[in-house]
Amino acid sequence: MKSTLKMAMATALLGSAIGLASPALADFPEKPVEMTILFGGSAQTVGQILADGMSKALGSPVVAVSRPGGGGAIGYSHVNGTDADGYSIVWNSNSISTVHYQGNIPFDYKAFAPIARIGSEVPVLAVSTKSGWTDLKSMAEAAKAKGQPLKVGVSGLGSFTHLAAAALFDKLGVKVVYIPYGEGRAPAELLAGRVDAAIQWPGQFIPHVQNNTIAMLCSTGMEKIAIEIDVPTCHEAGATDLNVTMWRGLAAPAGTPDDVIAKLQDAAKATVEDEAFANAARNLGFEPGFLPAAEFGELIASDDAVISELMTTLGLKNK
Amino acid sequence: MDILLSTLAISFAPEVVGALLFGSIFGLVFGAIPGLTYTMALALILPLTFTLDHTAAIAMLLSTFIGGASGGTVAAILVGVPGTPSSAATVVDGHRLAKAGKASLTVAMATVVSTIGGLFSLIVMVFSVDFLASVALHFGPAEIFALLIFGMSTICGLAERSIVRGLIGGVIGLMVMIVGQDPIDGVSRLTFGQVPLLQGVELLVAMIALFAIPQVVEAFSQHHSGGETVVDPNTVKVELPRPRYVWGFRWNIFRSSLLGTVIGAIPGTSGTIAAFLAYSQEKKLNKDKVAFGHGNMGGVVAPETSNNAVTGGSMIPVLGLGIPSDPATALILGGLLIHGIQPGPLLFVENPQVIYSIYMLFAASYVIVMIFMLFGVRLFVKALHVPHHLLALAIMVLCIVGSYSVRNSMFDVGTMIVIGFLGYLLQKARIPLTPILLGLVLGPAMEREFRTAMIMSSDDPSIFYTSPTALLFFAFAAIVVFKHTLSGLRSRNNQKKEA
């Protein structure tokens, strides 16, 4: 009995020695991969479906673990502190830049190796139909004529919707007071007339637009959003060159071996291209759009520069 | 009629019933274990619903929600540790009743009134979803802030000895919740540059710590000094409430149901506030010989009815407006969206079948949960046969697992232990713990609503006194404080006279 145990241990040791010797790590993953999720709401739900799909693609479990708080600071710090072996990855977003420039984490996006972009979400500008504003230009003119700052609802100060709103109203030259609501409350505040406009994810407005109580004036990205309602881009509607899009993707601690990244990237690709995932994600207002590691890395870097500039203008930068 | 019959057939297909049974048990277990909540249960069960057809998915989500909202009672009554924050108000009288040998009656009574409260809220939802959704719209930051102040005034009724001690507790609770990132500007407060502190103190972790740790310490010290009271297994008899007994509480049940349904419909409030408000309302109206706080069944009926009435109430803005009122309903909304069901005003016109099946499954979930609970009572009361120090050990393990699992953070386990021992010391200093919990629950919401209201009015405080709704709640709060101060002074005078 004892000798069998010894044998087993020796084999195990030998096995791990071989594993160490060959940098190829041919059998990744040997254990479950942990995917840290930073936020609740649709970000969490899409993350869970993604983890589900990647488990099937990898043939080994990918476990979604929630580590919310600090605008992403808690989750990023956790993953940053783990080994760069691909077993701990993060469901990230532009928040890596906002949380860094707010001064809440000492490291920035360079602390992570990009794996793949999974897709994007584009905020829209919505108003109550009672306001009578049917397009961006008429709203901007009416606001300027009124002389008082426009009350605009956003998720929170320093949140992505705040940045998108700031970029938009800066282009329009309209004075604005930002009212920080939680994400879900924007339609209620618009319907009750407590705010003049709101910048939020389109999904929650759809039933009210169909009911003709809320109108979506424009979306902040360069490309039109893929929903059943026709919404022009802000660029078309008068805020020329406005392009603010929230991406979500996966990243691992910097230094994770390239072949491990490649395996995770392929699993992510297979999941995003799956019809079931795409449908579920679209229903949640998330537009799937795969980008491989290298291109995703370039996107993160260019957006980081844009966010840094925006936050400086807004006086939100502490770093 | 055809549509109702066809919905009935779809709603009770075998796989839907299976989903109902599974969800109910899953929710009950998560609700019953301190530190595991139905919000967590919903997050875990959501991926399981992806592959189900939409009726079964709705069944699973609703039954998990309802099971979880009902399960918290068991631990609150039997061991004095609330399974969820919304059953914290039940601990006060419920645990006393259990100690007095009425454990099974109390649990069963709580189960029955929970079901009544839940079904009451369903009926209100069916008949007035449009009206209540428009009432909910009326509650902006200033109005919600006023409602929270009213909630805060219930501290008066919870402070066992003196209002001053109660206030000390409430303020401690508010102070604890200041730690972390502030909810408006994202500035870090009292974190001393430590990243883990940015996430602040999690309400659940603090709740487990406050209620469980002092009990655990007490149980061990009693065991050590040999003064342990052993419950004689023969005195714990299984007793279920008779219909006539329940009927005796009809007005309490009615008032608490109504209160819970309305509070539930207002976004940004929760079952915890409803439970405490119902408790303090019934305490004022109580004419029994046994005072509230000393083992009065009315003190169990009120919070349990209203925290379950919240379930139907909180579904009103979800279905009527597509707006979630708390994290649990946000997850339910996500589950509906994945299946292509878009709640909102048009759902009632375009897809009435979905609405009918939601109503039927909601009612079915309550009935199934009640049956499970009533059968379970026999098992639950067995927990009382376990010697206290062994039970304390088990509670300790659950506390550690629970506080870790809320946010998957070891830091929270440390926080739980620190707050727990502070709670023990405070209890020794005769500072009541329930007001601390109230401060913890209401603090973050109060700050957020107050500051949002002030931003909205460009720092003009008139926003609070130009809204009639806000004024009404401020007035309620003032009346409560005034009455309690008056009765406090009177009883002091009486004591002087007697002396």
Automatic annotation (TrEMBL), chain A:
The keyword Signal applies. Pfam families: TctC. The keyword Signal applies. Keywords: Signal. It comes from the Bacteria. CDD domains: PBP2_Bug_TTT (cd07012). SUPFAM superfamilies: Periplasmic binding protein-like II (SSF53850). Residues 1-26 form the signal peptide. Belongs to the UPF0065 (bug) family. This is ABC transporter substrate-binding protein. The lineage of its organism: Bacteria, Pseudomonadati, Pseudomonadota, Alphaproteobacteria, Hyphomicrobiales.
UniProtKB/TrEMBL annotation, chain B:
The keyword DNA-binding does not apply. Residues 19-438 form the DUF112 domain. The chain crosses the membrane at residues 28-50, 57-83, 103-124, 131-150, 162-180, 192-213, 258-279, 358-380, 386-406, 418-442, 462-482. The keyword Lipid metabolism does not apply. Keywords: Membrane, Transmembrane, Transmembrane helix. Signal peptide: none annotated. This is C4-dicarboxylate ABC transporter permease. It comes from Nitratireductor aestuarii. The lineage of its organism: Bacteria, Pseudomonadati, Pseudomonadota, Alphaproteobacteria, Hyphomicrobiales.
